[in-house]
Amino acid sequence: MTISALPFTVFANFARSRASQWTLAAAVLAAVAGPAPADARARIGSTVGAFDGTWNVTFTPLAGNCHATNTVPFMVAGQRVSSAGGGKVTGGVSRNGAVAVQIIVGASSATGNGRLAGNVGSGRWSGIITGDRCSGSWQATRS
After folding, report:
1. Domain containing residue 138: CATH number
2. How far is 55 from 4, CA to CA, in rounded Å?
3. If DSSP codes are grouped into helix, strand and coil, which group holds residue 40?
4. 50: phi then psi, degrees, rounded to nearest 5
């Protein structure tokens, strides 16, 4: 009895061809889904904004059982506002200077909105500070 190697050769070539296709597909997928070059990430992730920098924000209570005035540093990068000190600050600033933020420090939280112009800004805030509902104004200067 003679066994021909031809069917096994065709099958082996098919498997090798299929493996090559999958390898090529994986390489293309990795190239497309891979990390972007640094300059592309810089263009996408952060744009230079007119309000970039550290802002010292003074919160003044005007209503409620809150009496202390506090100054807190915020960081603006592009259109994002974040904390430059303690606590969690999230928010944004538009190109025309309209700003809206949420601030959480321990059990206290507040929201604020207003406007930045040049190196100054102002607005209103409200929230629950150490269990008491309070509201007031804020003033900011870029340092």
Report:
1. 2.40.128.120
2. 81
3. helix
4. -65, -15
Q: pLDDT digit string (tens) for 64-115?
A: 999 889 999 999 999 999 999 888 999 999 999 999 999 999 999 999 999 9
Sign of the alpha-carbon dihedral angle for 90, 70, 143, 120: positive
Q: Does residue 39 belong to any structural domain of this protein?
A: no
CB 102 within 8 A of CB 91: yes
Q: Tell me which residue range forms the domain holding 16.
A: 6-34
Cα(126)–Cα(68) distance, integer angstroms:
14
The two three-digit tokens of residue 97, written as one number: 């200077």
Residues 84 and 29 in one domain: no
Cβ atoms 81, 89 nearer than 8 A: yes
Strand ranges (E), 3-131? 53-64, 70-77, 80-83, 88-93, 98-105, 108-117, 120-129
Q: Do 27 and 92 belong together in one domain?
A: no
Residue 94's contacts (CB-CB under 8 Å, 6 or more residues apart) are: 79
Write the CB contacts of 42 (distance below 8 Å, at least 6 apart in sequence).
Answer: none
